[in-house]
Amino acid sequence: MKTVIAAVAATLIAGSAMAAGHCAAGKTLTEGKLTIATGNPAYYPWVLNDAPEAGEGFEAAVAYALAEEMGFAAEDVTWTRTSFDQAIQPGPKDFDLNMQQFSITAERDKVVDFSAPYYTAPQAVLTTQDIFVAGGTSATMAFLKEVQWGVVASTTALPVVMEQIQPTKSPLVYDDNANVIAAMQAGQIDAALFDLPTALFTSAVLMDNGAILGQFDPAAAENPDQFGALMPEGSALKACVDEALDALKADGSLAAIEAEWLQEATGVPLIK
Amino acid sequence: MTRRAAYEARQRRRANLIAGGSTVAVLLLVIVLVPLAPGWEAVRASFFDGEIFLRTFPDLARAFLLDVAIFAWSVPMIFAMGLAIALARGTNNPALFPLRIFGAVYVDLFRGIPVVLLVYLVGFGIPGLGLPRPWNSPYIWGTVALVLTYSAYVAEVLRSGIESIHASQRNAAICLGLSERDTMRYVILPQAIRRVVPANMNMLVALQKDVALLSFIGPVEILRQAGIFKSLLANFTPYVVAAVIFLCVTVPATRYADYLMNKDRNARS
Are strands A97-98 and A77-81 parallel, antiparallel or unpaired? Predict the structure, then answer.
C-alpha cells in the first residue's frame, strides 16, 4: 500500500513538474501558467491585429516560442496589457514577462530585470514624400541636422537624435507613435526616429505619404538598441528565460521567426 | 494685565502647545510608520532618489521656463476673450441677439469639452488643414486651445460679477446721463471685476497646471521633460522634482489669492 501511494505521489509530482516546465516551475505568478504583458495597443509588426493570443507578429511569435522552450503549452500562456509606466513602477507586477520593444539600458536595468536581447533594432528615419524628395535619396547628416525632429518620449530615440544627429532645432516629443504621425501630417515635424520595423509599417500603412529616408547601421552604433523581455527586479525566472532564448538562438528558430515577421527590414539604405 | 487678559493669554498658550504637539505627533507618525511599510524601500528608490533629483533639477527648472512663458502670453488673451464673451452674453440690445446666442454657445461648447481633447483637436487638427510654417506651430494652436477653454470659464466668472452689481447702480448711472457703454465701463465693470478677483486667481492657478497639457502636441515643457527622464532612467523621481517646482509657484499664488479674498471680505464687512 505504501509503495502504491509513493508511486502515485511520484507520478503526480513528475506530472505537475512536466506541465510547469523544466526550470520555470514555481517561479511564475500562477503555477503552471506564464503571464506575458504587451503594450496597449500592441503595434504591428510586433503583434498583428492587436491580438497576441494568435501568436502572429514578431514578439507574439517569440513569446510562444519562449513559452514552449520553457515547457508551457500554448494554452498555458496568458496575456495582459501594461503601459511603460506600469512596467517600471515599484511594487508587485502582474506579469512574468513584458515584451513591448523595451530597449535594454543600464539605467533601466537597475530598476527591473531584462532578458538577453531577442532583437537588435536598427533605427530608421521616417519622413514624408515631400521631405524625401527635398532631401534626395542620399540622406546626409547635414540635411538631417536641419530638419525638425519628432520622437516618442518613452523610447531611446531622443538620446540617439540628440547625440548622433545633434539637430539645430530642438526636437518635439510625443506620447506615442500615433501622435508623432499626427504631427507629421500636420506639417509640424519633418522627420521621426523609430526602430526600422515600426518605421516601415508606419510609412506603408498608417501614412498616405510616408517614406523611409534611411537607417542607421546598428553595428556601427555605440549602444545598439537591443530589445529584451522585461521582468520584475530580481525575478527568479530570468535565468530560465535567458536559457530558453539561448536555445532559440542556437537552433536558429529566433532567426526564423525574425525572417518570417520582419523580413521587409532589409534593403533600406544606410545613413552615413 | 487684568485677570481676564492673563487667563486668555494662558488659554492661548495652551492651545498653541496642543496644536504644536499634535502636529509634531502626526509628522512623527508619518516619518516613522511609512518607512515601516514592506514596499517602502522600492518606493523610495523609484520616487525619492536624491542623486537623480539633483541631476534632473536644472534641466527641469529650465523646461519650466517654457510653462511660465506659455502662461504669460495666454493670460492677457484669456481675459480679453473672457471679457468679450461676458459682455456679449450680457447685452440687452435686441439687434445684438445673435451675439448673445454666440456667447452662450461658446461657453457651453468650450467649457464642456475636456482641455486635453481640445488641445489635440486644435493642436493637430487645424494645422492639419494645410497651414504652412510657422503658422502650424504647436505653440500657437496649443495656446489657442487653452485660451478657448479658459476664456469660457473666465467669461462665466465675469458675468457672475457683472450680475452681482445691484440694479440701483445702473439706474443711478442712467440718471446721471451716462450712456449704456459708459455705464458698463465706468460703473459696472470696475466693481464687478474687483468682486471676482479671488475666483479669477483660482482660474490662474488651474491654468498654471494645465499649461503642461501642451506637451501632448510636442513642446518639451517640464512635465514632458520629466517624462523623458523617467523613461531613460526608469525612475519616477523627475516627476517629484516637477511637482516641487510647480508647488514653488502655485503655493505662493494660492496664498496670494487667499490674501485677496480676505482683504475683499474685510473691506465689505
Answer: unpaired
The per-residue pLDDT for A11 is: 47
Q: Which residues of A touch B235 (CB under 8 A)?
A: 88, 107, 111
Q: Is residue B44 part of a domain?
A: no
User: Would the CB atoms of A107 and B138 count as touching at under 8 Å?
Assistant: no
Q: Does the ipTM exceed 0.90? A: no
Distance from CA of B136 to the nearest CA of A (A): 6
Indicate whether B41 belongs to any domain. Answer: no
Q: Could you read off the pLDDT of A227-267 as tens digits, one per residue?
A: 999 998 888 888 889 999 999 999 988 888 888 888 765 56
Residue B141 C-alpha, separation from nearest chain A C-alpha, in angstroms: 11
Q: Is A155 on the interface with B (CB under 8 A)?
A: yes
pLDDT category, A211, cuts 50, 70, 90? confident
CB-CB under 8 Å, A108 with B217: no
Full strand arrangement of the beta sheet holding A112-114: A77-81, A34-38, A97-98, A230-232, A112-114
| B155 and B255 together in one domain | yes
Distance from CA of A103 to the nearest CA of B (A): 10
Chain B residues inside the 8 Å CB shell of A187: 127-128, 130-133, 136
Could you say which residues of chain B have pLDDT below 70? 269
At residue B59's C-alpha, the angle toward residues B58 and B65, to 5°, is 95
The range of the structural domain enclosing residue B99 comes to 50-268
d(CA A139, CA A215): 10
- Nearest by CB: B39 against A90, A112, A153: A90
Cβ contacts of B228 on chain A, cutoff 8 Å? 153, 158, 173
> Which residue out of B221, B231, B236, B237 would a mutagenesis test of the A interface target, given it has the greatest number of A Cβ atoms within 10 Å?
B231
pLDDT value at residue A137: 55
Residues near A267 by beta carbon (within 8 Å), at least 6 away in sequence:
none
Which regions of chain A carry the CATH code 3.40.190.10? Answer: 26-120+225-265, 122-215
CB-neighbour burial class of residue B123 (10 A; exposed 0-12, middle 13-18, buried 19+): buried
**pLDDT band per the 50, 70, 90 thresholds, residue A14:** very low
Say yes or no for a CB contact (<8 Å) between A187 and B131: yes
- The domain total for chain B is 2
Q: Yes or no: say if A143 and A119 are a contact pair by the CB < 8 Å rule.
A: no
pLDDT of residue B66: 92
State which fold the A26-120+225-265 domain adopts.
D-Maltodextrin-Binding Protein; domain 2 (3.40.190)
CB B220 within 8 A of CB B62: no
Q: What is the pLDDT of residue A264?
A: 63
pLDDT at position A20, please?
Answer: 43
Cell of A179: 501622435
Minimum distance, in Å, between the CA of residue B259 and any CA atom of chain A? 39
> Rounded to two decimals, what is the model's pTM?
0.75
Q: Using CB atoms, which residue from B46, B133, B218 is nearest to A90?
A: B46
Each residue's pLDDT tens digit, A97-155: 999 989 898 888 888 899 999 998 888 889 888 777 766 655 677 888 888 999 998 88
Shortest distance between the Cα of A50 and any Cα of chain B, in A, equals 23
